[in-house]
Amino acid sequence: MRIGKPNTDALIRLQKFLIPISGGLSVSAVYIIWVDFEQILPQSVSMLFGFVLLTFLLSYAWTWIEYTKVQRLKEAISERESQKKSSQQHKLNQLSFKERDVLNHILAGKSHKEICAQLFIENSTLKSHINHIYKKLGVRSKKELILALK
Predict the structure, then answer these.
(1) What residues make up the domain containing 149?
(2) For helices 42-93 and 123-137, what crossing angle results, to 10°?
(3) HSE-CB for 40 with a 13 A CA cutoff
(4) How far is residue 67's CA from residue 5's CA, in Å, rounded to a whole number?
(5) pTM of the full structure
(6) SS3 string of 97-142?
(7) How many CA atoms lie within 13 A of 24 on its CB side?
(8) Mean pLDDT score of the chain, rounded to an integer?
(9) Which of 137, 138, 130 is nearest to 105 (CA)?
(10) Are 74 and 87 in contact (CB under 8 A)?
(11) Are residues 104 and 145 both part of a single domain?
(12) 109-137 pLDDT tens trace
């Protein structure tokens, strides 16, 4: 017998039944109050208390299931982000030294003329490096490149 956290997948599947059950309990509680309004019997009071308590517990279960869903979603998003970052790092590692140098100048906001002057290369060579960078990083423009590396 396994003791510990309940199977959240099963609870998520059963979540769709919580609202109708809570509604039925609420209607039952209202019925007890409506019918026994003039003469409230002791067993009616205990049943009413039981219905209210069960409705509260079902509401708590609903909230707990929603919280669990949000936590799973947060974990999935953070895992996807970490995979994206490791993939991005792998792509950056494929760049040659000169391509990294060109990339740093591009990210610094320098123009093509400034980059050519600082690296002592021709404009055609710079364009070749930029095309290789785009291809290796899987982008098509300077905007995409900057957004991908943020």
Answers:
(1) 94-150
(2) 150
(3) 14
(4) 14
(5) 0.51
(6) HHHHHHHHHHHCCCCHHHHHHHHCCCHHHHHHHHHHHHHHHCCCCH
(7) 6
(8) 84
(9) 130
(10) no
(11) yes
(12) 999 999 999 999 999 999 999 999 999 99
